[in-house]
Amino acid sequence: MGKTTAAITAVGKYVPDYALTNKELETLVETNDEWIFTRTGIKERRILKDADKPTSYLAVKAAQDLIAKRGLDPAEIDMVIIGTATPDMNVASTAVFVATEIGAVNAFGYDLQAACSSFLYAMSTAATYIESGRYKKVLVIGADKMSSIVDYTDRTTCIIFGDGAGAALFEPNEEGLGLQDEYLRSDGIGREFLRIEAGGSLLPTSAETLEKGQHYIKQEGRTVFKYAVSNMADASVKLLERNNLTNEDVDWLAPHQANQRIIEATARRINLDMDKVMVNIQNYGNTTSATLPLLLADYEEQLKKGDNIVFAAFGGGFTWGAVYLKWAYNS
Question: C-alpha angle with apex 166: 5 to 318, nearest 5 degrees?
């Protein structure tokens, strides 16, 4: 028996029906469709309009999609990890609630927060649990209701973010497929450049913070862009070098969908043609923790058993990294 690796054996997704187009954003802030598309690659983003439906709603829907497609008994799930920057509430874990809602009665769960790198970090966590032999089925969900923390009078953020969720099931593999290697990094220098100022222990909620709009996400776009381009590309290059892979060995690049120019810069750095790059930013915008699993769900039918996939992400904090995974099944 060979070494046990952690393979993705099923994926699922959910995005809300409502599409907020660039044309509609023209009525909210001073911008236009051409300006947004040429700078970001985004044409529309999905928004969960129901005020009473939180991130867990998105996560449950994505998990149910996976469960139905796979014919999985939820009681077989050992663990649920949710990568999210927009949990339903403080203290009570969103993953715990989602596990209960989907019938994963034998699972434990918790949330993982690393901004846009959350799903990448969660992949690493799930793989470690699987490789240890302790658990057999780990459900990883990336879900964010970014519209709940976006100020729709702030042109620097409202054009970028959307709502959505994607899910992936990790199981043991003895064929050498699944997660092969990872290169994960973080640097607290980024804390000031992409953040929500209030609502945490540093600056608790008050009438003053609400009045100042300090509960919305804010970013210094140029600084974040600079770090994202260099770090996503560097992490991908280092991962390939460490595994003696060339661009010809890579079947797919699955990059975080933050900005089309960042995606293209990462592909150029590893000399990869764009026809090998997964892209859906035009349809969803930046869904933060959900971008990577949404890519897998959208490209699932094109993926072949044994395909080499490089995942790359960059998020606030700063957090970033790359993961090398061999795809484990044919659709």
Answer: 80
Calpha distance 254→252 (Å, rounded): 6
Catalytic residue (one of 173, 280, 283, 286): 286
pLDDT above 70 covers what percent of the chain? 100
Q: Is 116 a catalytic residue?
A: yes
Fold match, 5-176 / 179-326: yes
- Side-chain-side CA neighbours of residue 284 (13 Å): 29
pLDDT tens for each residue of 168-197: 999 999 999 999 999 999 999 999 998 999
pLDDT tens profile 288-306: 999 999 999 999 999 999 9
Helix (H, G, I), strand (E, B) or coil at 180: strand
Each domain of the chain, given as residue ranges in start order, spans: 5-176, 179-326
Catalytic residue among 22, 116, 231, 259: 116
pLDDT in tens, 84-96: 999 999 999 999 9
Written as one letter, the residue type at 202 is L
Instruction: Check 22, 256, 259, 280 and give the catalytic one.
Output: 256
Domain 5-176: homologous superfamily in CATH: Thiolase/Chalcone synthase (3.40.47.10)
> Is position 286 annotated as part of the catalytic site?
yes
Tens of pLDDT, residue by residue over 276-291, are 999 999 999 999 999 9
Residue partners of 31: CB distance under 8 A and separation at least 6: 22, 25, 155, 159
The continuous run of DSSP H or E covering 321 comes out as strand 319-326
The structural architecture, per CATH, of the domain 179-326 is 3-Layer(aba) Sandwich (3.40)
> CB-side exposure of 188: number of CA atoms within 13 Å?
0
Res. 320: pLDDT tops 80: yes
